[in-house]
Amino acid sequence: MTRSITARSLYDDLHERLKLQWIAGESDPSGYSISPDDLTTRPAVAGFLNLIHPNRIQVLGWEEIRYLDTLHGDEKQATVARIFDGRPLAVLVGDGLELPDLVLSEAAGKHTALIRSDMKAFKLVDYLQYYVSTALARKTTLHGVFMEVFTIGVLITGDPGCGKSELALELLNRGHRLIADDAPEFTRITPEIIDGTCPEALQDCLEVRGLGILNVRHMFGDSAVKLNKFLRLIIHLEIPGKGDSLVHQDRLQGSTSSLEVLEINIPRITLPVMAGRNLSIIAEAAVRDFMLKMKGYDAASSFIERHSRILRRQNRKIAD
Q: Are residues 109 and 180 in the same domain?
């Protein structure tokens, strides 16, 4: 799920935060837009004036305006023309600066948006780069309950009726936090990080069969909910069929795999749902074990190595 950015949408989204004012192009926009492809095909989408590799959003500050003021005649005309020949989505000027008349006339002729901000130009660039990267980031929605367990972002998945909401309720009672139930939204904010949030319509709510909709914030307090969390682990609940057997499961490594989410492999642990199993304690243990593995310790590998040492020692005794 992606979208494009136009000069109008940029202004509407940021005009209050960045104190933006239209200078030109409000009623006659160029029709240019920034797409997710621009994030991978251009060195920078938003930045200070660059005439070699033009940014889609060009920002002018004191240095850029001072540079233009040093130019005269045909050289100045050619330089200003190059700014707009690069077909920028918009040209923003920071520090509340006034633009030369030549820039205003060239923008009007090329139907390019000119926008002023009272914010310092370097801060303006930071805000614009963050805005573009988040607005155009790849997104998806997954079915499950997204929680924070021991500071780790955990997505609980499984078929309907397997006990996802019941497990989430138990974890809430044990002091963990809810981010989103049913349809958490995930955004790839960096090449290796996926951020999970809750849709506005579902915030603070958890649906439990037999109880209906519960407001987690009202029941457990503000500390029981969290706005967002990075997705690090998936716990998948599975109800074994009548013909399924647990005998063939790996008793050392457990049932581990990975799930590709937005082209990032997320570790996944599959837990069988059976009568008598305390899933909340097992889920906590799974998260603790995952945290140890992130630190470099693997209990199964350590167990195998210990037994290998014992066998080698016994073999040496037999040989002696």
A: no
